[in-house]
Amino acid sequence: MEDPGHRFNPNQLTKNVWDAPEDDEAYLRKVKVVMEVYLLSIDPKNGIFEASVRCNMMVRFPKSEDEAVRDLRPSVRIPSCEIEEKEARIFEDSKLSTAASTLWRGILSFRLKGLESFEVQDFPFDRQIIDMNLLDFRWMEGRIAMEIADFQVRTYSKLAAWDAYFAMVEAKNKKSRPDGPESAGRFNVKLKLERKAEYYITNIFLVTCGILVASLLPLGMDVNDIGDRLAVYAGGVLTLVSFKYSVAEQLPSVPYSTLADMFLLGQIATLVLTMVEALVCHKLAESDVVEMDTINNVEDGVLIFFVALWMSILFYVAFVRKHFRLKWRQVLSKQETNVPEKSGK
Description:
A six-stranded mixed sheet has the order 1-9-2-3-6-5, with no helix packed on it. Strands 4, 7, 8, 10 and 13 form a five-stranded antiparallel sheet that branches. The chain has a two-stranded antiparallel ribbon with strand order 11-12. The protein is built from six helices and 13 strands. 33% of the residues lie in helices and 34% in strands. Strand 7 and strand 8 (144-145) form a beta hairpin. It is α+β, with helices and mostly antiparallel strands. The longest helix has 29 residues, at 292-320. It folds into two domains: 30-195, Acetylcholine Binding Protein, Chain: A (Distorted Sandwich), CATH 2.70.170; 198-324, Methane Monooxygenase Hydroxylase, Chain G, domain 1. It is found in: Membrane. GO terms for molecular function: extracellular ligand-gated monoatomic ion channel activity. It comes from Alexandrium monilatum.
């Protein structure tokens, strides 16, 4: 089901009136725009995104204005982004023109680059909203404001790690006329993206769980082999720490822990606890306070408990957690409220 906020359609159009000659008079000079946004790059660490944008337009002008219309060129101003224009032109569609009006099709193609603050608390189950802020559509020459009666945004992701959803569209300068359709020339557009977690589940969570289970196996060894056991535990801790920092390199430096951080820190804490347990059991065995068979049974139970615990956590992360992502309104609320209160300090 389409998100109702992805389109500006105040006149509740159920058909393409630009193709219908009987609607010429009401929709003269009114523009239909379908904007296709192809996301090419997202860099959460540096807060940069890049996209290729193509706007397909339809507009009818009176036949008497054909000469003046041929000199028009569509343009858009996006103050928050750097724009590299590739193509901007309009051309006549003679098949859909009538005796009273001419249907013109327009193409506006450009590449944009912008900045955005990415919140990654839920990494790798995070959702992101890229706020393009103001889009101001105008006709060049003369910078005449477009009267857009139907504006639709379609978002496509060219990135294997991200899924794109319908954008949020809000008209900023609506114009209502009693004898014609409502229109606008300025819009606020927010792109919605969701990270695909499968890669990280396989290459981080599954791998680190394998390392953890392998590092826990010394719990089944003789309690007196304290040196070998501590060496295996220490090797597991160092491996998990290196994994943690390799993940951190892909993300912005933030003052909070992500879901992946908590997962890896929990595994490191588990190995540290087993190191303490190994030392305590070794001391108890040396002093004959507890029988060796009892210690071995306890350690076997600890091994089974930790393996079962982390397999359950892995199952939750792999198959359940993705169904509990933040709602889009929560993502937007967090992004809008995450504004620094201090400036220049």
